């Protein structure tokens, strides 16, 4: 157990609340997912709270659920991450900006270029959450008959990563001399043409933008399957995880950091951040009442629909008052489903109970209590190596976020567990991550 | 000839100057193409000058030219339009923001979504410059062996447009009721699933973002070939053109507006904006000296290389002191090449003279003179129906832009040819364009 450990905090912001009833809570912004002025205010609040980063998940389709549930979902209209984050970069100065971009339905040249641009515009605050697209309905928006199979998605993702990082290294950091006198704009010796040819991609390069300020934007992942853990251990610098309890979190933490060591990477060059749904009250009772009030705002149909999306199968066909039956293997994201199945078994939950839990806090780790009790739990996960920090999910905006920033953050700071000022100007500097050397040019 | 005609002004900003020597001019920002703070200042200057829009061209590759010329080009590192413009949206309030996005190497779902997001974030100021990718070297960055053939590019572009506009209409304007009391977020009767199936694309939809504030972002094009003119007449609301003289401009203007009438569209629902390279001086002599000083900063190798890019063939193999030989047909953009060939013939230019012209102001319309003489020429083009305005190209930043905004704009305003205040808050309102009705829902 280390003693000088500090928490890293990300804010999960797409949707701005994963709680299905969050948009209806008294005082909440019903349009928080889709109002730029609200997003700007939230980003400034997070910066005031010294958060490492704002994180945007992504879907390339409207989620597939029955219309009775869908019409109640605040997530159907939202901004895509790579359009919203440049706008937020222009109105913030220290907050990290992490966007999800799929390797399944994008081209690596576009992705490399957009993240490089975001990194330059933000002064080195970009992060890329590299995902494979696990939602089968996304395929239908991209001229495909069916979803890309799990193993092939990961093979494509691995090559995609190599192409993107290769393109980022197209130019040495000091390539652009801009010598007004001689008229030479860059040194040709400091230009590398990638000429990548692989099973999935053939990309010549060079990228038409300078090397990112951070060398590479911070590489983020959320893989929970075996293939996902391995690609994370090889390439990720932040992983967002799902863990309902400290025991599972410690097992994941030890596994991924162990894989890193086998690969010759330093353990602290990857930060493990479990998702945590946080509700703050002056007393534990008050926080629990707030959570109950939120849960009561979720329509039962929405709970079953959310559960169906998470399980990849129609849960309305199950006996709602019986235990969760065995779930057939699908081609979707595996880790998030398994965490739910485990939780239902451990807690002896009926399908109805599980649905309500998923429709509410999505079945993730819940920290519901006072600033002190929440800080206690975060400290325990940090010190026992279940986490390097958390990806915080707020129950609603703006109040749920203000509570965390105004009440929990000062308690964490008082304990010496969280920064009072940003350490640097880039996301890497704040996370304590090294700047990658250019693979084609010596420093 | 109409009497109440007003000019529309766009600012061509990628590159920030098309003049090859602009970055070396005394007082210029050598890194203007690639410095967000400079872009922000430029956008604010344009807004002060009441410009309709800032326009960003795009390339999906570093331009292919010999390294001796390439190393002198300020264009090799720049921002991609759809990452820069959201950031500029956050720091401006009235200026239109037009981004180029290729229909050749993108997916329509991504393009529809990003422009919808830009339109919402900017409060209705987005425009989409719909292009086909004419640079053969772009194919190599997108896993293709060779460039997509001209006719096929246009067929794909036409279908791409139908898919994007269909996706923009996924939701009625009033679909999102966000009824906190009942928990209903949207009215299912106001959701349309596109289910497009065509020769190039199969896209189900719906788009996961609300209908753009403008209904559709303003549709911009630059087609000069017959296929390009036809798609412009069918779909465009702004066209950027190249014309070296008023006679050609009038012919183009009459042709495209005539095609519109045949298609049942109103002539004033499309604005024709020729590119104009503008250098302002206190006297015509001073402006000409400034232009000579700029031209002297272009290396001869760069001129030949720029000419080769424009012609789609290696001009260094020609007799530099002879006339331009016949240029073989290629698969590249046709209109811009033909304008050059015509100019060389009309002016009896040698290859060397043509190269210097292209390396300087790219062989476009040049307005070099006093605020009065420039306003005279703009007025003439406007009144004789050669143009509805101009896409202004500045010789360098910030001085070349400041000169235009501080000296030419007031002269145009004094003559009643240009607005003194923005007419509305959206780009459509400022351009005087109608808001498209939703094709799937009555207003």
Automatic annotation (TrEMBL), chains A, B:
Residues covered by the Luciferase-like domain: 31-386
PANTHER family associated with the record: ALKANESULFONATE MONOOXYGENASE-RELATED, C2H2 FINGER DOMAIN TRANSCRIPTION FACTOR (EUROFUNG)-RELATED
NCBIfam families to which the protein is assigned, alphabetical: FMN_nitrolo
Source organism: Duganella aceris
Name this polypeptide is given: LLM class flavin-dependent oxidoreductase
Domain of life, source organism: Bacteria
Keywords in alphabetical order: Flavoprotein, FMN, Monooxygenase, Oxidoreductase
Family of this protein: Belongs to the NtaA/SnaA/DszA monooxygenase family.
Coiled-coil blocks: none
InterPro entries in alphabetical order: Diverse_substr_monoxygenases, Luciferase-like_dom, Luciferase-like_sf, NTA_MOA
């Amino acid at each position: 157990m280390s003693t000088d450990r500090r928490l890293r905090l990300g804010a999960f912001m797409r949707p701005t609340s994963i709680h299905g009833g969050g948009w209806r809570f008294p005082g909440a912004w019903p349009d928080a997912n889709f109002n730029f002025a609200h997003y700007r205010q939230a980003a400034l609040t997070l910066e005031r709270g010294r958060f490492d980063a704002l994180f945007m998940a992504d879907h390339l389709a409207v989620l597939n659920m029955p219309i009775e549930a869908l019409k109640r979902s605040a997530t159907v209209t939202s901004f895509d991450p790579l359009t919203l984050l440049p706008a937020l970069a222009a109105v913030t100065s220290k907050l990290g900006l992490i966007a999800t971009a799929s390797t399944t339905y994008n081209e690596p040249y576009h992705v490399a270029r957009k993240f490089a641009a975001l990194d330059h515009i933000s002064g080195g605050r970009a992060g890329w959450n590299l995902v494979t697209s696990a939602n089968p309905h996304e395929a239908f928006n991209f001229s495909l008959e069916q979803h890309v199979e799990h193993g092939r998605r990961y093979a494509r993702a691995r090559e995609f990563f190599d192409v993107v990082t290769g393109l980022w290294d197209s130019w040495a950091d000091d390539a652009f001399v801009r010598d007004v006198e001689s008229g030479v704009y860059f040194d040709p010796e400091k230009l590398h043409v990638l000429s990548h040819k692989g099973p999935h991609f053939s990309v010549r390069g060079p990228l038409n933008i300078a090397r990112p300020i951070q060398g590479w934007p911070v590489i983020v992942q959320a893989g929970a399957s075996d293939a996902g853990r391995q690609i994370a251990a090889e390439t990720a610098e932040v992983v967002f995880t799902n863990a309902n309890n400290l025991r599972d979190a410690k097992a994941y933490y030890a596994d991924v950091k162990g894989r890193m060591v086998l690969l010759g990477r330093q353990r602290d060059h990857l930060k493990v951040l479990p998702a945590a749904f946080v509700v703050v009250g002056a007393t534990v009772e008050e926080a629990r009442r707030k959570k109950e009030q939120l849960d009561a705002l979720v329509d039962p149909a929405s709970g079953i629909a959310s559960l169906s999306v998470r399980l990849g199968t129609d849960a309305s066909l199950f006996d709602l008052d019986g235990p969760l039956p065995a779930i057939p293997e699908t081609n979707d994201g595996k880790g998030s489903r398994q965490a739910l199945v485990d939780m239902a078994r451990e807690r002896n939950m009926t399908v109805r109970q599980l649905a309500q839990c998923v429709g509410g806090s999505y079945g993730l780790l819940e920290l519901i209590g006072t600033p002190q009790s929440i800080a206690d739990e975060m400290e325990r996960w940090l010190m026992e190596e279940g986490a390097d920090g958390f990806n915080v999910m707020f129950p609603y905006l703006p109040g749920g976020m203000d509570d965390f920033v105004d009440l929990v953050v000062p308690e964490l700071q008082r304990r010496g567990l969280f920064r009072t000022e940003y350490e640097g100007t880039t996301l890497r500097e704040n996370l304590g991550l090294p700047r990658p050397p250019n693979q084609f040019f010596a420093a």
